[in-house]
């Protein structure tokens, strides 16, 4: 086999392996977008645990924390359960300043992985919902 033929054979093998990997890669299942995120929070001083619902792009205050979900997704019922939300959490300091303490994805199936752990308050994602008893935010 000549040098050029070896290179072409090697390239063909790489292409074949790449196609095999693509053919066996899992297909990304559709994700369902929801208008409400459900959180659980704990006040470590009082031991009080509260569940609260928040509409997307709205802010709810839990103690000294302000929780704002931006998007909340679940997997389809036929797929393995997966619930995640992109969330921003701000702290209101004793000086009345607002300081961002968390920006990122929270995973309901692994609440300890990306929960907000504050000195007094912890918050984690419990799930996503289509509706809630909480009145929707006012629109101007």
Index terms:
140 residues, four-stranded antiparallel sheet, 9 strands, DUF2155, globular, signal, DUF2155 domain-containing protein, five-stranded antiparallel sheet
What is this entry, summarized?
With 140 residues, the protein is of the alpha+beta class. It has one helix spanning 3-24, and strands at residues 31-34, 36-43, 48-55, 60-62, 65-75, 83-92, 98-107, 116-117, 121-129. Helix content is 16%, strand content 46%.
Report on the architecture of this protein.
The protein is built from 1 helix and 9 strands; from the N terminus they run H-E-E-E-E-E-E-E-E-E. A hairpin with a 2-residue loop joins strand 4 and strand 5. The chain is globular. By secondary structure, the chain is an alpha+beta fold. The strands form 2 sheets. Strands 1, 4, 5, 6 and 7 form a 5-stranded antiparallel beta sheet that branches. A 4-stranded antiparallel beta sheet has the order 3-2-9-8, with no helix packed on it. It has one domain. The relative contact order is 0.20. The protein starts with a helix and ends in an 11-residue tail after the last strand. The mean pLDDT is 84.
